[in-house]
Amino acid sequence: MSDYPSDQVRRFMMHSSCDQFHVTDHLTEMELSDVELTFMLAQLCFQYAGNRYQGEIQEVCDRLMTILSDDLHDYYVNELNMPRYFKRLAKMMQINNEIQVVFCYTVNMKVIVYLFIFITTCYAASNNTICTNGFDLINNKCWKLFQDPANHTMAEKTCTGYGGTLFMAKTAIDNRAVGNYVSSFGIDRIWMGVFCIGNAKSQCYFDDQVGSTAIYDNFAPGFPNAGTGRCVYYAVPGSPSGLWINADCTEQLPYVCELPTSHSGI
Questions:
Q1: Are residues 51 and 139 in the same domain?
Q2: What is the mean pLDDT of each run of 10 residues along the chain (266 residues)?
């Protein structure tokens, strides 16, 4: 499978060799989805093939990358509701550039693919995040669904009892992930960790007291509206899709608690 001496291959595949690739740090920071990782690997492969064979092969690779780029655009805009994804995509391409620099395209494509798989494996091994108290690890967050309806105050008390808060979505990826997490339970609304004292997004605050929804929000049109209610619920996809809506805090709804993550030894 490789032209390299066996001792070099063994050294390369040792877990400690993960530390040689700073790329894994960037992967951990970005929390890339499977869709994004697939796009990155395809970009590496098609760019390598196009540069090596030129001509019609390069044209085909360029067309395929155009199709994949359009699909990635749809993924960000339609599925994640993230129209401003340029900076994230730029970071992904920077990671790919770093991978290319490691081997400088002096090796065959098989080795580049192995390198990509190896780096992502290192990423998975280094990202040894766990959850306690029976919480589920979802998108690098610890969440637990409570299906028995409660008013907002009681929901908060339950979460506080576990050492956490009601769930908070501060990115489009998190906002989509929580919908996927609870959608199979037949629930259409859940309380979330947001409380509004006014009708501006800067007047709605996350339960962890770190910032307001001015940094990220997915309020439905016409919201926030503290006159409707100061508490906020998340409309599970389909009713409508992942939008935030104000409601009276005494309303009884299911809820998701969020705990800080923990880390186990490797």
A1: no
A2: 45 44 67 83 82 84 87 84 86 83 56 58 62 90 96 97 95 88 92 97 92 92 96 84 95 97 68
SS (H, E, C) the chain: CCCCCHHHHHHHHCHHHHHHCCHHHHHHHHCCCHHHHHHHHHHHHHHHHHHHHCHHHHHHHHHHHHHHHHHHHHHHHHHCCCCCCHHHHHHHHHHHHHHHHHHCCCCCHHHHHHHHHHHHHHHHHHCCEECCCCCEEECCEEEEEEEEEECHHHHHHHHHHCCCEECCCCCHHHHHHHHHHHHHHCCCEEEEEEEECCCCHHHEEECCCCCECCCCCCECCCCCCCCCCCEEEEECCCCCCCCEEEECCCCCEEEEEEECCEECCC
Q: pTM of the full predicted structure?
A: 0.59
Q: Domain containing 11: what range?
A: 6-127
173 and 89 inside one domain: no
CATH of the domain at 161: 3.10.100.10
